[in-house]
Each structure stands twice: as C-alpha cells, then as structure tokens.
Amino acid sequence: MNEGDSIPELKVTPDKYLPHRYAGASGDFNPIHVDPELARQVGLPGNILHGLYTMAQVARANTAAAGGDPRSLRRLEVQFRGMGVPEQEITVTGTVKEARDGRVVVDTVAEQGGKRIIRNAEAVLEPPV
After folding, report:
1. Fewest CB within 10 A of the end CB: N or C in the chain?
2. What share of the chain is helix, strand, coil (3-state, %, to 5)?
3. What is the CATH architecture assignment of 10-125?
C-alpha cells in the first residue's frame, strides 16, 4: 500500500437482531440497544447499534486491507460521531495517509445513511513478526 491508496470498501448491513446478539456477546444490555420502544421514548429512532460493533467493522476493513491477518492491525483509534441503526447499510472506507518501512497508517471513515458515524479513525498496519 502506498500513500493516497484507498483500502477496499467494506459494506455491511446489520440485521434487526444484531444488537441483541451483540449485547449477548459484549455483555452490554443497555436498553437503547435492545428495546426499540424504550429507545424511542428517550428520543432515539429505535434501538441503536453498539459503538463497539461499528468500530469492529472499521477494524475488519483494515485487517482485510492488510491481507486478513488480525495481527497486522497494530493500533486503532476512532471517534464516534453518530449513531448506527440496524437494517441500514454501513460503508467503511479508508485512505493510506502514510506508508513507510512496512508500516501503513490508514485514515478510515464509517458512514450510514450519508452520515459519518465514525470519523478520524486511524489504523496502524504492520506485517506480523
């Protein structure tokens, strides 16, 4: 990968039950993730995705760009900037902003419905030793 290159785009559409399964996997049963009625009562459009799920998709896209070995993802920082919802496609894109001595830094964004739900994400990729 060279500076200015794009990583392969990742598109994923979380199904309506994903927040429930993710709650079980993560242990985060906050009602805004699993109870659409309660989420609406507090002003949300319905139940929302866990931020860590969205971050995981950013990690997944960068890992795939590095050849698929999860050990290649050495560091990941993200800024959560919006709420993701089930049943709407999430698109993860990234651009290499630095490539030197086998180390690649990728600026990554996750969007849903035209809104950036993660931005200013920075992934550092290096081949495993």
Report:
1. C
2. 30, 35, 35
3. Roll (3.10)
